[in-house]
């Protein structure tokens, strides 16, 4: 920890409880529920940031990870009506949405032939006609065309509906998906686990218990997954800590989570547009507290298309060691809600430069954090992807 960070901690020691929390972090002791809430409520941002940065550097040094992936969104038609969502169109109004065929999605995959992408990320709305057999066929087609491409796909919200429609158990459904080519799960659909909030913002979709059970089953099958939390709307700090506590407990059991991704609520074009968005200071605090509370999660990611490049860059000093890194992202989930990146796309060179500007070490990774290339001393040539 550098001299500046030490001074921040000394100043915070005027609060004995913050001093106790800081000592626990430095000695790798687990924070309690109440201590997590206290960091949100009382800790000066420089203090919680310094602790989170120390934790990040103790785990990863200056390494900052990114990967080369692309998104497929099979549909934005959805049977559910989440109040925070600006993306999906209710099935009753499906003429306003899109629905891709297997051939259309396979053609998207083929458009990346010869390009150094390592992952396809498939998520979308919950369409009653896009069933489990449909997606099993899609994954088999992708693997037949490009076997090495890692398929990270489907939130538990999508999977729970598929399994229910197919009349199969979670265990059987996950087994079938894994055998067809599903390699890992993204973290979406978690929102806020606490029923007090979940019932207000997304009452009709998969419950917290169902979300956790699907990820647990994936882990038991040898798959890894990510986890998210939707913050900055009507939830309270205790709801955030409750959410992270449930994730931490499952991670203690399975060790199957790779990455935690706080997702900022964006208020454009949805039923919660009257709710003001989180400030930059509160965004940074969310990332920092996440890094400190989720002591058994290897990585914390800031999704730059949602936050914008400058804010994502700032988070690298607040506990974050991964900024996703999509090189050609057609996703509309956040742009339709008013995110800074309306047409998110960043070349590898731009991404590496962004990481280096804050004196971090750019590392291209695979989905499971295998190191593909260290770009610390790389010199780019014209036309390089």
Q: How would the blueprint of this fold be written?
A:
Blueprint: H1 3-12, H2 16-26, H3 33-42, H4 45-60, E1 63-66, E2 69-72, E3 77-78, E4 89-90, H5 102-110, E5 119-122, H6 132-145, E6 150-153, H7 156-166, H8 170-180, E7 184-185, H9 195-201, H10 208-220, E8 224-231, H11 237-254, E9 257-264, H12 280-293, E10 299-300, H13 304-307, H14 309-315, H15 348-356, E11 361-365, E12 371-374
Parallel strand pairs: 1-11, 2-5, 3-4, 5-6, 7-8, 8-9, 9-10
Antiparallel strand pairs: 11-12
Helix pairs in contact: 1-4, 3-11, 4-12, 5-6, 6-8, 7-10, 8-10, 10-11
Features:
385 residues, alpha/beta, 2 domains, 12 strands
What is the structure about, briefly put?
The protein is of the alpha/beta class and 385 residues long. 43% of the residues lie in helices and 13% in strands. Residues 332-342 have low confidence and may be disordered.
Structure description:
It is a single chain. Residues 332-342 have low confidence and may be disordered. α3 packs across α11 (237-254) and α6 (132-145) runs parallel beside α8 (170-180). β8 (224-231), α11 (237-254) and β9 (257-264) form a beta-alpha-beta unit. It is globular, with a radius of gyration of 20 Å. The longest helix has 18 residues, at 237-254. By secondary structure, the chain is of the alpha/beta class. The protein is built from 15 helices and 12 strands.
Order of helices and strands: HHHHEEEEHEHEHHEHHEHEHEHHHEE
Count of discrete structural domains? 2
* Mean pLDDT score: 89
**Number of distinct beta strands:** 12
CATH architecture heading of the largest domain: Alpha-Beta Barrel
Q: Looking at CATH, which topology of the largest domain would you report?
A: TIM Barrel
- β-strand percent reads 5-15%
């Amino acid at each position: 920890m550098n001299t500046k960070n030490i001074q921040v901690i000394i100043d915070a020691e005027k609060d004995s409880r913050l001093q106790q929390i800081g000592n626990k972090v430095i000695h790798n002791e687990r924070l309690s529920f109440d201590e997590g809430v206290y960091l949100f409520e009382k800790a000066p941002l420089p203090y919680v940031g310094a602790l989170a940065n120390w934790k990040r550097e103790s785990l990863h040094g200056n390494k900052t990870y990114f990967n080369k992936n692309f998104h497929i969104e099979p549909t934005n038609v959805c049977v559910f009506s989440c109040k925070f969502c600006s993306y999906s169109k209710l099935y009753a109004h499906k003429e306003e949405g899109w629905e891709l065929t297997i051939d259309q999605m396979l053609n998207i995959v083929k458009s990346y032939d010869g390009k150094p992408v390592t992952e396809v990320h498939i998520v979308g709305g919950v369409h009653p006609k896009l069933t489990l057999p449909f997606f099993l066929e899609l994954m088999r087609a992708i693997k037949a065309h490009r076997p090495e491409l890692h398929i990270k796909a489907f939130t538990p919200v999508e999977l729970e509906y598929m399994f229910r429609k197919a009349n199969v158990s979670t265990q059987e459904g996950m087994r079938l998906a894994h055998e067809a080519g599903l390699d890992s799960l993204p973290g979406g659909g978690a929102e806020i686990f606490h029923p007090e909030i979940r019932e207000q913002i997304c009452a009709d979709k998969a419950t917290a218990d169902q979300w956790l059970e699907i990820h647990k089953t994936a882990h038991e099958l040898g798959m890894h997954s990510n986890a998210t939390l939707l913050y900055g709307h009507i939830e309270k700090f205790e709801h955030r800590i409750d959410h992270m506590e449930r994730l931490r407990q499952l991670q203690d059991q399975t060790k199957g989570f790779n990455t935690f991704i706080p997702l900022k609520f964006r208020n454009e074009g949805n039923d919660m547009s009257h709710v003001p968005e989180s400030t930059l200071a509160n965004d940074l605090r969310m990332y920092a507290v996440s890094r400190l509370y989720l002591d058994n999660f290897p990585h914390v990611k800031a999704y730059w298309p949602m936050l914008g490049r400058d804010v994502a860059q700032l988070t690298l000093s607040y506990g974050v060691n991964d900024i996703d890194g999509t090189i050609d992202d057609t996703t509309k989930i956040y742009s339709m809600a008013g995110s800074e990146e309306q047409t998110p796309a960043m070349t590898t060179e731009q991404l590496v430069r962004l990481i280096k500007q804050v004196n971090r070490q750019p590392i291209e990774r695979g989905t499971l954090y295998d190191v593909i290339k260290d770009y610390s001393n790389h010199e780019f040539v014209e036309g390089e992807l």
